[in-house]
């Protein structure tokens, strides 16, 4: 199945069919996720979390317990009908499971969905937006987290995500106080990106000011666009174009130069960058920095404006996929839930795009179609009499 073959419509059944059961079994073997357990295997937990996050408005350990113990759930995902569990067992398993299984499953789903559904983006570039969001919980509940402000009794966990088209392509979870600094977290997440295309452009906001980060990305031969502060110090090497005075959107271009930036210790960067100085109609300055020497000034500004898409994505996963709520307060469990939430987000996001509906509608219909699919399977398996499935002959 490809983006062109679905004719602007895709079903949950089609999307689930792209995630091969045998591939999950292979990953479970490779990561040894099922060692030392007699229940709640890696594949079972994968399906439980995927279904549970889609099924409930506010997923909890007790709601996951109810889902796992239902015959409907075990039938849908071909699990042992005699196996049961408790919420505390789910909590313990989240705290100890090998995170590598879920990370590799996330990479697998991303790669499969990108192959089937990614399309050429605007301006001819593969634009990857990069940003961070924070989720807070009372300090005595979270195992680890950052303190933000001296008067609050909360800890926060930071999630930094790369968004490629409609698919999250890289994620990292940060809990250390020093990792509040975007100079550390955004470059780290970019460098973890899954197999970026040659025409990929990373776009991030001016929270990243590290000259070393700009140089590290450039040395990878990757492109980026960002903003820098108005008082950024630099030395002009070359004037790149004669676009001074032209208007792009609501911005007027004042200068377009190839420059060396100054570092904190008053040294110049070894690598030159392109600095586009602009001003809006109210006189406020906006400085755009990139390593894209041959792109037009208009392309650079329009690429940066695409960064807003990741803010929409954060709002979607927080409001519709319970991302602002901790199911597990253990760091290992938090990371597992992140990977599973992003897998579900890909299902819902693709469904939204190819069925031309909103996020709320897409989430609701994904759940409805899962239930419809389950009902059809039950009726088929019971020869038309569902009471046989639920109560036996």
Provide a descriptive summary of the structure in words.
The protein is of the alpha+beta class and 393 residues long. Among the domains are: 12-106 and 328-391, no CATH class; 225-296, no CATH class. 43% of the residues lie in helices and 19% in strands. Strands 1, 2, 3, 4, 5, 6, 7, 8, 9 and 10 form a 10-stranded mixed sheet that branches. α8 (182-190) runs parallel beside α9 (211-219) and α12 (331-355) crosses α13 (359-381). The longest helix is centred in the last third of the chain and has 25 residues, at 331-355. It starts with 11 loop residues before the first helix and ends with a helix. The model is unreliable at 1-6 and 388-393 (pLDDT under 50).
* Structural class by secondary-structure content: alpha+beta
| Alpha-carbon Rg, integer | 24 Å
Helix content: 40-55%
Strand runs, count: 10
Distance between the termini: 39 Å
Low-confidence stretches: 1-6, 388-393
Per the principal axes of the C-alpha atoms, what is the gross shape?
Answer: elongated
Largest sheet: 10 strands, mixed
Number of helices: 14
Topology pattern, helix = H, strand = E = HHHHHHHEEEHEHEEEEEEHHHHH
- Which range does the strand content fall in? 15-25%
Mean pLDDT: 86
